[in-house]
Every structure is written in C-alpha cells, then in structure tokens.
Design a protein that fits this description.
InterPro entries: AAA+_ATPase, ABC2_TM, ABC2_TM_bact-type, ABC_2_transport, ABC_transporter-like_ATP-bd, P-loop_NTPase. The chain is α/β, with parallel strands linked by helices and about 725 residues long. Helices cover about 50% and strands about 15% of the residues. It is elongated and about 130 Å long. The two termini are about 25 Å apart. Bound molecules: adenosine-5'-triphosphate.
Length: about 725
Amino acid sequence: MDVPDEVITEGQLNNVTLSDADKAVKVCGVYRGYGSGRNRIPVLRDLDMTVETGTIYGLLGPSGCGKTTLLKCILGRLKVTIGEVKTLGRVPGSVGHGVPGKRVGYMPQELALYSRFTIGETMSYFGRLHEMKQSLVKQRTQFLIELLSLPEESRIIECCSGGQQRRTSFAIALLQEPELLVLDEPTVGVDPLLRHKIWEHLLAISRTHVTIIITTHYVEEARQAHKIGLMRNGYLLAEAPPSELLESYQLQSLEEVFLRLCEHDDGNQNEHDSSTREIVPSLAKRQPSGPSSEAEREPLFKDEIITSSNKESNRNCCADLCSWWPKPHNVVAQTIKNFIMLRRNIGFLMFEFLLPAIQITLFCVCIGREPYNLPVAVVNNETCMGSGFCGSANFLHHLDNRTFHLMNYSHRYEEGVEMVKQGDAWGVINIGENFTYDFKHRMSPLVSNDTLEGSTIHLRLDMTNQQITMTIQAKIMAAFQAFSSDILTSMKLNPAIAQIPIKVEDPVYGDLNPSFTNFMAPGIILSITYFMATGLTALAFVLERKQGLLDRSIVAGVNTIEIMIGHILAQFFVMVVQVCLLLTVALAIFKVPYEGSLVLVILLPLLQGLTGMTLGLLISALCEEETAAIQCSLGLVYPNMLLSGIIWPLESMPQWLKYISYCLPTTYAAEAMRNVLARGWDLTYKAVWSGYVMTIGWGIGILLLSAFILRIKGK
Ligand SMILES: Nc1ncnc2c1ncn2[C@@H]1O[C@H](COP(=O)(O)OP(=O)(O)OP(=O)(O)O)[C@@H](O)[C@H]1O
C-alpha cells in the first residue's frame, strides 16, 4: 500500500469542494481500488484532474495505470473510495443530472455492440435510451454514416469489418451530440487514415463546446489535445497543454517528457520509501502535516470519511430511490432490443417454443403408460386330462399376452420364486392342482371356503415398481373375471357370484404403492415451465456484461431494474407460447385429467415461469461466466424436482426434509396445481391459493434480491 503524503483535514476537505463552473470534469484527491482486505488492488491514488469545458483532454499512460478506472469514476460507473468527482458540474449519478445518461457519450475500450443488430437498429436502441425521436435518430445516423464512412444502416454489425465496427461504436458515442465525450482508446488498432479522421472530428466538435476526454497509450497522438494528463501508477505525473510540457522540459517529443517524468517520479518514490507505512486503504493519504503517530491519525481519518460518506449517502438516499424507478423509454428500448435479439435467432426461438412441448411429450410417452412384455413365471400344478373343461388353461389363455411374457415352470414353485429373486421375472403365478374342480365346488353353497384353501392361485411379486405391480395385479384380475365368466356361464350360473380364489402373498421385494401417474403430471408441467424460464434468463446479464454492452447501456442512462423488466417482458412472450403448447399437449393430446378452472390451470404455470425468470436473473447477477450460470441453473433442476414433491409424495419424506421442501418455490404450487387439475378445487381452498401466493411471493423476493445484488456489484 502506498504511503500517504498528506492527511486531509476537515478544513482541507472543504477547500477541495468543487465549484468551478467552467470545468467540465474536476477530480480531487481520488482514491479507488478493486477487491478488499488482503486482495485489494489499489488503482487510483490521490488523483487530481481538471478538464475545461470545450477542450480535448488526452489521458496518457501505460497499460494498467488506471485510465479506464478513472473514466468509470468520471462516468459514475464506479464510486470513489475517497475524494470527489464532479462531471458537468455535479456528482455523477445525481438525480436528473444526465451523467450517466444522455449528456455523456461513451465509447468503451471493447467493441460493446450487439453483433446481430444492424447499424440502424443499434442507433435506434441508443437513441431510445437517450429519448431521441426516431426521425432525429435517422437523421443523425445518416450524418454519422457519411462522416465516418460507415456501410449502409441495414448492414448487420457482424458483417462489418473490424474498422467499421469500431467506427460504429464511435458513432454511438456521438449519436445524441453529448456535452461530454469519453473515449477509451478509440484509436487502438485503427489505421492512420481513420485515426486522423477521428481526431479531425474531435477538434471540430470541441469548437462547439463539447468536452472530450480521450485515453490512449500512443503518446504522440495526443499532441493534438488541448491538455494532456500523464498518468502513472494511479496518479497524474503532470497535467498541462502539450506545447507547455515540451517547452518546459526542452524536449522534442511527449514520449521523452513522459520518460523524464517517470525517472523523476522514481527518484521521489525512493525518498519516500524510507518512511513507508501500511495503513488501511480506505484512509486518506497526503503529506503528513498533522498528528505524527498512527494512533493519533486514525480517528481523524475515520471521522472525515464517515462525515463525507454520510453526507453522500443522505443526499443519495432519495436519489437512489428515484434512479431505481423504471423509466418507460428505457423499458421500451430494452424490450425492443430483446425482441430483435429473439428475431435474429429464429432457429433458437423455435427450439425454445417447442422444447416444453417436447418435454411433456417425453413425460407422457415415457411415464404413466402401461408396461408391457413383463416376464412372469407360471407354475401350473393342475393336470388337465381328457376333453373336460380345463380352468387353469382357460385362465392363462385370458392373460393379456401384450402385458405378459409367460415362462412355464410346471410343478416347481420354488424355481419360479427364485426367478423373481434373481430379477429375471416380475412375479410368479402358482395355480393349485385342483383349481378347476375346487372352483366349481367353491360356487356350491354346500362347500365351506376353508376346505378349499389349498387350491387357489397364489401370487408372489416383485413390488419395487408400483406401476408394474399394479399392472400385473389388474391384468390377472381381468383374466380371472374372464375365466370365471366362461366357467360359470357353462354351469348356467351368474358370473357375479364368483368368489375370488386369488391370494397375493408377501412380495419378494418392495411394497405395494398406489399409482402416481396423474400425481406427477401437474408438478412436471410446473417444473418444466419454471426451469425453462430460468434457462431463458440465466445468461441475460452474463453475455452482455462480458461484451461490455451492459456497461455501455448503463452509461447511456439505463438502470438495472429497467434491464430486468426488459428481459422479463420479452421472455414472457416466449413463455406464453411455451405454456400454451405445453398445456395443449398435456391436456388435449395426452388427456391429463383436469377438473378445475382452465384459467387457474394456465395462470399457475405462467406465474411459475415468471418466478423461474427471476431466479434466472439472480443467477445471471451472481455469475460472471456463462459456464457457471449454465451449471447453476442445471444444478438446481434435479434437487428442486426431488424436493418439491413432484416425483414422489412429500408424505414419504423425513420431517426435516419436509420443512426444506415447503420453503421451495414449486412445492405449494405443485400441490395447488394437483388440486385444481384432479379435484377441481378453486381459489377458496387454502391448498390452492397458497400455491399462487407462494409463487408470487418468491418471484418478487428473488427479483428484489437480484436487483440488490446487481446494485451492490455495480453492474
Ligand atoms: N474489475 C477489476 N477487478 C480487479 N482489478 C481490476 C479490475 N479492473 C481493472 N483492474 C486492475 O486495475 C488496474 C488498472 O486497470 P485499468 O483498466 O483502469 O487500466 P488502464 O490504464 O485502462 O489499462 P489499459 O490501457 O490496458 O486499458 C489494472 O492493474 C487492472 O488489472
């Protein structure tokens, strides 16, 4: 950490308060770094800078010296730790100031362009952010196309050459004819002809009272500026008109001046090193003129900082609220931008439309359908001789041959059971040796049932899969009914009197459970909508942030709430189409039963989708990389499905897990959906309205949290 040169006292702090009306930018004693604690990187150190209105200020310095950081402080994108910045007369970010906003044109170092937009659409987007009439945007676009030799406005940005893309980026900064132009290395990688053209234009507009700050590490290029600031290690070594610097140092080039200043600075550093002390970065540092010991100095620092930051925070409290309030023109700009992006990616949009319908199709095809071709061992102990009626053969004949794959093990029941134990069969059917004879006698009022106990059909099943168990049982009952109908009709008896001689013995594995097919469908519908929506927005900020587009839009005056609303509005359209297709497939094609109001059935997935979107925005706010965002959204799918009672009933969960489950956004909703679909309940039932309330509550909560995180991270 650097040595503080001087302690700022209360009086001194007042003295540095900025009031000069003719100064477009005034930076006083600014400190700013990145990170915190041991990982803190100090960047700006006690930096002063003055830019007069209507001049070109060349900010020069080697790579990494802090030029971009300083520009971001001037634009209000970064808050200074200590010191004061005034841009166009006020603290950047003040309510109604227009910085960030339309009073400033910003060209970031990176391209920061929507590559799928045309030049015209790009201009329209930034024009909307600056509240310009579209006719004026058109006019300015034509002017800038001519001035900067850009291709026609219908040209897609990604089809432009590198130089054309940079000039488009420059044109955006000039679009609204701002009072202040901040250009971060506009000439890097630009051919000399274009560089000359850019400087020519800058000189021309500076004569119309436009102030320009331009950074470059091509030192000689800045000779054309009215004033230059030579920056090194986070502070300015010198600040003067180029001619003055050359004259006073009696040197030929600015590069030589810069080298001389660096040597001088190195000498000064060595002198200071003997008195170097480590202090916390948030404390002010200047020439020690006051109390000498650290203990004496610290309270003074802290008071100053608290006083100054309190002043700032009081002033900004209302400002913050106002700046959060979404402005319609920004929301419209964001929404249109997102729709254009959707339109440019029509293949992906179709995929997004169809994916939920494909998922529900897979669910209906793979889950809930009747299993078939099930291996079942048959042990038929009955010996049918002659031409008499053979009941066991008749019974086996009636077993559905699509469902069963029968394997005969005559007289070897144990062998059949072993097959089930080995997992080679789902069950064993054991038919008693006197089955037909006893069945006939069973119907006789003279015979007691007890005496016939040994001649029934015995079933031993693997009951680990409830769907299969239930199918086998149902099919065996159906076959028995058909058999009893045959035999009793031949005896001229009413089949309704048949007594059922089928006994289900202890299962080999598992236990019998009820069916969950219809139980699962509502939860599956909701979770598909929820996670599709999360996926739609999880990359919302990540990509724009990485490409510098988010920063650029914010400098143009958009706030994070407006960006979020823009995303939600555009993606809501996609989601409505998804939900319509999803419900059509589920309810109309696969006949998932619904007893309740269709409005409620449609509304809940839509609300769940909106909540899913807010979760996506939260992921997007938290993650810096696409891979992290994708992993995060995918990683949430399965735990949520397992914990929300979508796949298996909550009643089977341990109590502590139930508490967690009820805290999740889809649990109450799945319950409500089930009640609306299967029981036909409406909003008067708690089990229904609680699902809607929880969904809305979660949506609002996550949205606010995302906005808060974006605010804190300054994105
Ligand atoms: N977001 C960040 N987090 C941590 N460190 C950062 C961040 N941004 C910049 N830095 C560090 O701050 C220092 C100054 O960076 P800055 O981008 O302001 O320099 P610069 O003078 O604009 O460099 P260049 O000319 O290469 O663009 C560098 O050491 C850089 O590594």
